[in-house]
C-alpha cells in the first residue's frame, strides 16, 4: 500500500549556486497555473493508483521553496492534495520554508492548516558562510526564524545546516552546530556541499579546486559534529540526520524502509510495485503535459532484482540500524560471500564500522564512505 506522498513546489527567490533540484525563479503570476496543474496531476495520480492508496502517514511539501506560496495559496494546494489522498489521523504533514519567510504569523498559519513538521533551510548562522553559499537571507533573519519556530512553529521542526562551504573554515560550521545544540531544535540535518554537474559551482574552477583541497578537513568537521550532537542527546539515525528522541522524520523513514511513495510536481520521483519514475523537471514542460491531460512522466524503469538489492544496501548502510546481512541475502537471493565478509572485517578493523549481532553498522567515518562501501558490496 502507498502511504507517503511528496509534493514539489519549484519556485525560489534566488537559485543557489549549488542547487541541482528542479527549481524555477519565483514569479507569482505562475503560482495559479502551477497550482491548477498540480491539482490536475493529483487527481490523475489518485485515479491511477486508487486501489493501492492507504490513508497517508506522511505528506511532504518540499522544493524549491514552498514558503514562496502565500497562505491563501497553501489553502488551494492542501485542498487539492486532500481531495485525492486521504490523510491518516496521525499523518505527518511536513513543509519546507526559508528563514526570510518564517515569521510568527506565517508559522501560525502553517499550524492552523495542519502542518505538523517544518523544515528550515537555514544552512548557517554565519554571514560569511551564507554569502559563500549564495543564500538569500542574512544571519539575523536566520536567528529570527529560529526564535519564531520556537514560539509559533509546529510540534516538530528541522534545521538544515551545510558544511564545506567554499572558502569557509570548518570552525565556522562547528560554531553553527554548537549554537544549534544550545537551542535544541527537535531535528537537525547536516549536508556536505556536493559539487553537482550543471550548477554554477560546478562551472567555477576556484570552487572545485577549493573543495578538492579541503575534503579531509571538512570530513573531520562532520565527524566532530556527529560527536557533539551525540553528546547532546541527538540520535544519529541516518547519515545526514540527527534528532531528539521520537522526533525522526517520518517521510524519510518510510522511503529508507523501501516503502512505496508517490511524487507530484516538476522533477518529483515516485516508487511503487518495483517501478521507479520521475516527472518532467522543467516547469513549462510539466505544465504543458498536465494541461494536455497527460501524466508528466519523463523517465520510468522497472528495477531488476540486482537493482533492488543494491538499493537496499545503500539505504540500510546509511542508517544507524545498519545492514542485516543474512536478511538481505535471504530477501534478494544473493550470497553474503567471502569478499563481502572480508570488506566488512576491514571496515571494522579500521574503525569505520561495528558488527552488532548480524548487522554491519557504519560509524561516522564509515558514513562518509557510504557510497564507496555500497559500490564495493553491490551486486554486479
What does this structure look like?
This protein has about 375 residues and is α/β, with parallel strands linked by helices. It has helices at about 30-50, 70-85, 105-110, 125-130, 140-150, 170-185, 205-215, 215-230, 250-255, 285-290, 305-315, 325-330, 340-350, 365, 370-375, and strands spanning about 1-10, 10, 25, 55-65, 85-95, 115-125, 155-165, 185-190, 235-240, 240-245, 260-265, 270, 275-280, 295-300, 325, 355, 360. The chain has a 9-stranded mixed β-sheet, sandwiched between helices. The chain has a 3-stranded antiparallel β-sheet with strand order 12-13-14, with no helix packed on it. Strands 15-17-16 form a 3-stranded antiparallel β-sheet. Helix 6 links the parallel strand 7 and strand 8. Helix 1 packs parallel to helix 2 (about 70-85), helix 3 (about 105-110) crosses helix 5 (about 140-150) and helix 6 runs parallel beside helix 8 (about 215-230). The protein is globular and about 55 Å long.
Amino acid at each position: 500500500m502507498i502511504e507517503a506522498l511528496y509534493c514539489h513546489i519549484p519556485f525560489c527567490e534566488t537559485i543557489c549556486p549549488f542547487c541541482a533540484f528542479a527549481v524555477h525563479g519565483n514569479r507569482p503570476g505562475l503560482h495559479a497555473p502551477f497550482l491548477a496543474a498540480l491539482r490536475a496531476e493529483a487527481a490523475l495520480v489518485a485515479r491511477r493508483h486508487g486501489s493501492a492508496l492507504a490513508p497517508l502517514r506522511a505528506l511532504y511539501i518540499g522544493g524549491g521553496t514552498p514558503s514562496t506560496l502565500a497562505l491563501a495559496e497553501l489553502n488551494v494546494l492542501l485542498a487539492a492534495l486532500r481531495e485525492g489522498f486521504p490523510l491518516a489521523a496521525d499523518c505527518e504533514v511536513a513543509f519546507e520554508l526559508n528563514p526570510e519567510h518564517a515569521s510568527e504569523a506565517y508559522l501560525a498559519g502553517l499550524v492552523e492548516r495542519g502542518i505538523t513538521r517544518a523544515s528550515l533551510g537555514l544552512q548557517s548562522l554565519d554571514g560569511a558562510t551564507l554569502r559563500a553559499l549564495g543564500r538569500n537571507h542574512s544571519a539575523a533573519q536566520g536567528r529570527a526564524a529560529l526564535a519564531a519556530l520556537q514560539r509559533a512553529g509546529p510540534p516538530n521542526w528541522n534545521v538544515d545546516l551545510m558544511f564545506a562551504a567554499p572558502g569557509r573554515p570548518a570552525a565556522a560550521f562547528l560554531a553553527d552546530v554548537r549554537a544549534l545544540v544550545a537551542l535544541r531544535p527537535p531535528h537537525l540535518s547536516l549536508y556536505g556541499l556536493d559539487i553537482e554537474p550543471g550548477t554554477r559551482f560546478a562551472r567555477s574552477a576556484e570552487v572545485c579546486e577549493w573543495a578538492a583541497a579541503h575534503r579531509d578537513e571538512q570530513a573531520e568537521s562532520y565527524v566532530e559534529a556527529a560527536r557533539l550532537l551525540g553528546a547532546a542527546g541527538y540520535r544519529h539515525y541516518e547519515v545526514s540526520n540527527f534528532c531528539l528522541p521520537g522526533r525522526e522524520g517520518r517521510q524519510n523513514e518510510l522511503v529508507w524502509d523501501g516503502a512505496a511513495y508517490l511524487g507530484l510536481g516538476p522533477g518529483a520521483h515516485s516508487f511503487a510495485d518495483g517501478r521507479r519514475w520521475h516527472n518532467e523537471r522543467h516547469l513549462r514542460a510539466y505544465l504543458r503535459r498536465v494541461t494536455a491531460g497527460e501524466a508528466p512522466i519523463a523517465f520510468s524503469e522497472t528495477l531488476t532484482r540486482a537493482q533492488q538489492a543494491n538499493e537496499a544496501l545503500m539505504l540500510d548502510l546509511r542508517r544507524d540500524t545498519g545492514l542485516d546481512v543474512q536478511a538481505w541475502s535471504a530477501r534478494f537471493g544473493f550470497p553474503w560471500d567471502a569478499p563481502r565478509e572480508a570488506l566488512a572485517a576491514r571496515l571494522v578493523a579500521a574503525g569505520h564500522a561495528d558488527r552488532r549481532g548480524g548487522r554491519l553498522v557504519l560509524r561516522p567515518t564509515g558514513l562518509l564512505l557510504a557510497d564507496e562501501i555500497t559500490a564495493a558490496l553491490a551486486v554486479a
